[in-house]
């Protein structure tokens, strides 16, 4: 698939395309209902489905990645993408590391902060932790772990 922006328009596989997109979070829907939701999206005239890909969802334990639904059927991102293709829908994929989908911890894996909280949590000028899900995005540990996540997810996205 070739996607580009040219002359102020989107082009998909050499043809001008209008992306009529809707948001469907595959990880919030039982796998057996994916077809029903995608059929409804297609019937409503959508051409594109946008979704977050939660890092925490697909790497529940450090170094253990699931994109095929081995540990939970709704983790089958490969199956979701194939199902979208089956319905003739293109996808906008948002792999984080942060996601804005009311996902606990903004999509960051629990193990990341359990193991590295002292190093990664953002602090104020007095050295006190700032509340919320904020971490130091430039900390070497964070960059190392995000690089590992991207090394796993990006080949899947570009295929």
Task: Tell me about this structure.
It contains five helices and six strands. The protein has helices at residues 34-43, 55-58, 77-86, 110-120, 140-158; strands at residues 3-6, 9-12, 15-17, 21-23, 48-52, 90-94. Helix 1 links the parallel strand 4 and strand 5. With 159 residues, the protein is an alpha/beta fold. The protein has a three-stranded antiparallel sheet, with no helix packed on it.
- In the predicted model, the low-confidence regions spanning at least 5 consecutive residues are none
Percent helix: 25-40%
As a percent range, the share of strand residues is: 15-25%
Order of helices and strands: EEEEHEHHEHH
- What is the terminal separation in angstroms? 9 Å
Using the alpha-carbon principal axes, give the shape: globular
Please, what is the average pLDDT? Answer: 93
List the total number of helices. Answer: 5
Largest sheet: 3 strands, antiparallel
Report strand order across the widest sheet.
1-2-3
SS class:
alpha/beta
> Number of DSSP strands?
6
């Amino acid at each position: 698939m070739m996607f580009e922006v040219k002359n102020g328009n989107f082009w998909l596989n050499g043809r001008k395309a209008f992306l009529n997109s809707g948001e469907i979070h595959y990880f919030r829907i039982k796998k057996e209902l994916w077809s029903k939701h995608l059929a409804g999206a297609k019937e409503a005239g959508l051409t594109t489905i946008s979704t977050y890909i939660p890092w925490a969802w697909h790497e529940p334990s450090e170094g253990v990645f699931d994109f095929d639904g081995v540990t939970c059927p709704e983790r089958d991102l490969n199956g979701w993408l194939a199902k979208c293709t089956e319905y003739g829908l293109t996808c906008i994929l948002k792999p984080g590391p942060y996601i804005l989908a009311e996902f606990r911890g903004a999509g960051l894996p629990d193990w990341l902060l359990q193991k590295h909280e002292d190093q990664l949590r953002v602090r104020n000028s007095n050295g006190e932790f700032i509340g919320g899900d904020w971490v130091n995005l430039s900390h070497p540990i964070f960059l190392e772990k995000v690089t590992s996540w991207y090394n796993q997810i990006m080949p899947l996205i570009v295929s």
